[in-house]
Design a protein that fits this description.
CATH superfamily of the largest domain in chain B: P-loop containing nucleotide triphosphate hydrolases
Structural class of chain A: mainly alpha
Order of helices and strands of chain A: HHHHHHHHHHHHHH
CATH topology of the largest domain in chain B: Rossmann fold
Largest sheet of chain B: 6 strands, mixed
Distance between the termini of chain A: 35 Å
CATH class of chain A: Mainly Alpha
Helix content of chain A: over 70%
Number of domains of chain B: 2
Order of helices and strands of chain B: EEEHEEEHHHEHEHEEHHEEEEEEEEEE
Oligomer: heterodimer
Number of helices of chain B: 8
Structural class of chain B: alpha+beta
Bound molecules: adenosine-5'-triphosphate, magnesium ion
Strand content of chain A: under 5%
CATH superfamily of chain A: MetI-like
CATH architecture of chain A: Orthogonal Bundle
Helix content of chain B: 10-25%
Strand order of the largest sheet of chain B: 6-7-8-3-9-10
Number of domains of chain A: 1
Number of helices of chain A: 14
CATH topology of chain A: MetI-like fold
Largest sheet of chain A: none
Radius of gyration of chain B: 24 Å
C-alpha cells in the first residue's frame, strides 16, 4: 500500500517536473539548434526540433563580425575581478555586521540594505557623471566598481552576515582562548566555515556580472571594450536587421560558461542558499 | 600552575547586576567546582575568569598577576566548552595543536605535545578524524586534549559533561578527576549537577542568584550546610524542611515531637526550621508519626513519601519497605540528623 502510494507520488512528481522543465529547456534548445539553421528555417512553424541542415559557419562568422574573443576575455576577467572583489568586501563587511559591536551598527546596516531597494536605472545617470569626472568612461572600471560596491555586494554582505550570525560563537571564543586575534579568527575559523555561503555569493556575483547589460551600454562605446551581452546586440546586417543565426551562435557561446558554472557548482549553490535560510 | 583569586568580582549587563561581589580563592593545583541552579551566574563568572566577558568591578588574579584587562590569550588559561567548540574544519590533530601553532611552537614540538596528550586521553588512533566523525565522548576528550596540550596555568570547564548520557558522564567524571591527579593543574569546573560537584571537587563553591552561598569541602557542605539554600541544594533527594518550635531541647511541629540533644538554644521557645535529610530518617524510631502516601522501590533503596498534617516529607531507606499508601508509621531521626535554620535569615542555627 505504502509503496504504491510513494510510486504514484513519485511518478506524479517527475511528471510535474517535466512539465515545469519545458519553459526552461525549450528556449535553450531552440537557441542552440537555431544557431546552425539557415535563417529561413529559424522561424518555421511549427519549429523543427532538429535542424534539417547544419551550417556551422555561423560560429566562424561570430568571430569575423566582432572582436568576439576580446569581448569574451573582457566579460571573463571583469566577472572574475568582480567576484573576487565582492567575496572580499562582503565577507569582511558581513562578519563585521554579524560580530563586531560598534556604535550605530544596526543603523548602518539598515542604510546599506536600503541600497538594495534602489533600481540601477535610478542611479545610472549620477554614476555616469561621477565616472565621467574621474575619466573612466569607456574603461572597464565602472563595470568592476559598481557591482563590487553596489547592490550585488550588498546582497552578498547580507548573505554572509546571516551565515556568520548562525555560526556558533563558542568556536570563536575557543579560538580567542587558543590565542588568536580578531582578524586571525576571521581568516582561520569563520571564513573557512563560511565556504557554502561564500560559494553561493561567488556564483551569484559571477552570473550577475556576466549578464550585466545596462551598465556596459551606458559606460562602454567601442567594440574592443564591449562585454558579451552588449556584443550580442551588434550582429546586424548593413540595414540594421538581426542576423538571427549568427546572433544565436554568439548567444550560445555566451551562455556556455554559465551552464558550466551551474552544472559544476549547483550543489554548493543549493547548499549555500539552504544554509543562509534564503530559498531561491 | 597558579592560584586564582577573585575579590569582590561584580558583573552587570547594562543596569542589571548578575554577579554581586564574589570572593573565591582557588589554591595552586586545587579542583574547585562552582555549582548552583540555572541562571545563578556560574557561566558568567567562569567567562570572566577566561576573559571572554568583561569584569564590571573587583580584581581577578591568576598567580601574582592582576588579569582584569588581559585578553584571553594572555591569561594562560584553557577552557572546555559545554558543546566542545571543536573546529569542524580541522582534524583532531590540528584541533589539538592549533593553539600551539599560534603561539609559535615548532612543528616537532607541536607534534610531540599532541602525541603526549593523545596518549593520555586515548585518542591516538583518532588523530586524523574530523570532529563530525567522533562520538560525543570522543569529542569531549578531544576538547580536553585541546586544553591540556598547552600546559596552561588554569583549566576552566563549563558543564563539560552535560551533553553526554548518564553512563558516559560517570566514566568521564572519573577520567577528568584522573587527569587532574596526573597534571595537578588548578581547575575551575562549572556544573549544575550536585553529584558531579560532590564527587569531583576538592572545594565546592555553591552559588545562588549571583552570590556565593557557601564555600567548603564536599562533605563539610553536606554535614554542615551554612544556610537553607545550600542544605536544599546539596543532597539528593533534597533535605526535608519542617517549620516548628524548639523548646527545652525538643522540636515540635504538627505530628512531630523530636528530641534534639545536640541543640541547646536555651529554654525559651523559638520558631525554627528543622532540616532532615531523607537518608537520616529511620523507620520505627520515635518522634514523627506520618502516613505513607507513596512508595517508590528502586532496588538498592526505597524512597517513601509521607504526609504530615502540614506538608510532606521524603525518606530513603536501604531496606525494602513493606508499607502501603495509607499506613501510619512512626519515624525517628539518626543522631545529629537535624539541622536548624532561622526562618527569617535562612541561616544555620547551632
Ligand atoms: N549577555 C547577557 N545580557 C544580559 N543578561 C545576561 C547575559 N548573559 C547572561 N545574562 C544573565 O546572567 C545570569 C547568569 O547567567 P549564566 O549564564 O551565568 O547562568 P548559569 O549559572 O551559567 O546558568 P546555566 O546553569 O543555565 O548555564 C542569568 O540571569 C542571565 O539571564
Ligand atoms: Mg551556564
Amino acid at each position: 500500500m505504502k509503496t504504491d502510494m510513494s510510486i504514484r507520488m513519485r511518478t506524479m512528481l517527475y511528471g510535474l517536473m517535466c512539465v515545469l522543465l519545458i519553459p526552461f529547456v525549450f528556449p535553450t534548445w531552440w537557441m542552440v539548434t537555431s544557431s546552425v539553421k539557415p535563417i529561413s528555417d529559424i522561424f518555421a512553424f511549427p519549429p523543427d526540433l532538429l535542424p534539417r541542415t547544419y551550417d556551422w559557419s555561423t560560429y566562424q562568422r561570430v568571430f569575423e563580425l566582432q572582436p568576439f574573443a576580446q569581448q569574451y576575455w573582457n566579460s571573463g576577467y571583469i566577472a572574475l575581478l568582480v567576484t573576487a572583489g565582492t567575496m572580499i568586501v562582503s565577507s569582511l563587511a558581513g562578519y563585521a555586521f554579524a560580530r563586531i559591536r560598534f556604535p550605530g551598527a544596526d543603523a548602518i546596516f539598515m542604510v546599506v540594505l536600503l541600497g538594495l531597494l534602489i533600481p540601477a536605472e535610478v542611479t545610472i545617470v549620477p554614476l555616469f557623471q561621477m565616472f565621467n569626472q574621474w575619466g573612466m568612461i569607456n574603461t572597464h572600471w565602472p563595470l568592476i566598481l559598481v557591482p563590487v560596491f553596489g547592490a550585488p555586494s550588498v546582497f552578498s554582505t547580507f548573505i554572509m552576515r546571516q551565515f556568520f550570525i548562525a555560526l556558533p560563537i563558542e568556536l570563536e571564543e575557543a579560538a580567542r582562548v587558543d590565542g588568536l586575534g580578531r582578524f586571525t579568527i576571521f581568516r582561520k575559523i569563520a571564513l573557512p566555515l563560511a565556504k557554502p555561503a561564500l560559494s553561493a555569493v561567488a556564483i551569484f556575483t559571477f552570473l550577475h556580472s556576466w549578464n550585466l547589460f545596462l551598465e556596459p551600454i551606458v559606460f562602454i562605446s567601442t567594440p574592443q571594450m564591449f562585454t558579451l551581452p552588449q556584443a550580442l546586440t551588434q550582429f546586424t546586417d548593413a540595414y540594421g536587421g538581426a542576423m538571427w543565426n549568427i546572433q544565436l551562435a554568439a548567444a550560445t557561446l555566451t551562455a556556455l560558461p554559465v551552464l558550466i558554472v551551474f552544472i559544476v557548482a549547483q550543489k554548493q549553490f543549493v547548499e549555500g542558499l539552504a544554509h543562509t535560510g534564503l530559498k531561491g | 600552575m597558579a592560584n586564582v583569586t577573585l575579590s569582590q568580582i561584580k558583573k552587570q549587563y547594562g543596569n542589571t547586576p548578575v554577579i554581586h561581589g564574589v570572593d573565591i580563592e582557588a589554591a595552586d593545583g586545587e579542583f574547585v567546582v562552582l555549582v548552583g541552579p540555572s541562571g545563578c551566574g556560574k557561566s558568567t563568572l567562569l567567562r570572566m575568569i577566561a576573559g571572554l566577558e568583561t569584569i564590571s568591578s573587583g580584581t581577578l588574579k591568576i598567580g601574582d598577576r592582576i588579569v582584569n584587562d588581559l585578553d584571553p590569550k594572555d591569561r594562560d588559561i584553557a577552557m572546555v566548552f559545554q558543546n566542545y567548540a571543536l573546529y569542524p574544519h580541522m582534524t583532531v590533530e590540528t584541533n589539538m595543536g592549533f593553539s600551539l601553532e599560534h603561539r609559535g611552537g615548532t612543528k616537532t614540538e607541536i607534534a610531540e605535545r599532541v602525541k603526549w596528550a593523545a596518549e593520555i586521553l586515548d585518542l591516538s588512533n583518532l588523530l586524523k578524524r574530523y570532529p563530525r566523525q567522533l562520538s560525543g565522548g570522543q569529542r569531549q576528550r578531544v576538547a580536553m586534549g585541546r586544553a591540556i596540550v598547552r600546559d596552561p596555568q588554569v583549566f576552566l570547564f563549563d558543564e563539560p559533561l552535560s551533553n553526554l548520557d548518564a553512563k558516559l558522564r560517570v566514566a568521564m567524571r572519573a577520567e577528568i578527576k584522573n587527569l587532574h591527579r596526573k597534571l595537578k593543574t588548578t581547575t575551575i569546573y562549572v556544573t549544575h549537577d550536585q553529584v558531579e560537584a560532590m564527587t569531583m571537587a576538592d572545594k565546592i563553591v555553591v552559588m545562588n542568584a549571583g552570590e556565593v552561598s557557601q564555600v567548603g569541602a564536599p562533605l563539610d557542605l553536606y554535614d554542615r550546610p551554612a544556610n537553607r539554600f545550600v542544605a536544599g541544594f546539596i543532597g539528593s533527594p533534597s533535605m526535608n524542611f519542617i517549620d516548628g518550635v524548639v523548646e527545652n531541647g525538643r522540636f515540635t511541629a504538627p505530628g512531630i515531637d523530636l528530641e534534639t540533644p545536640s541543640f541547646t538554644a536555651g529554654e525559651t521557645s523559638r520558631q525554627l526550621i528543622c532540616g532532615i535529610r531523607p537518608e537520616h530518617l529511620v523507620i520505627g524510631g520515635e518522634g514523627i508519626s506520618a502516613e505513607v502516601s507513596l512508595v517508590e522501590p528502586m532496588g538498592s533503596e526505597t524512597q517513601v513519601t509521607f504526609s504530615l498534617p502540614e506538608g510532606t516529607i521524603v525518606g530513603v531507606f536501604r531496606d525494602r519497605i513493606a508499607a502501603k499508601p495509607g499506613d501510619i508509621l512512626t519515624l525517628g531521626v539518626q543522631t545529629d540528623g537535624c539541622h536548624f535554620f532561622d526562618p527569617l535569615t535562612d541561616l544555620r542555627v547551632e
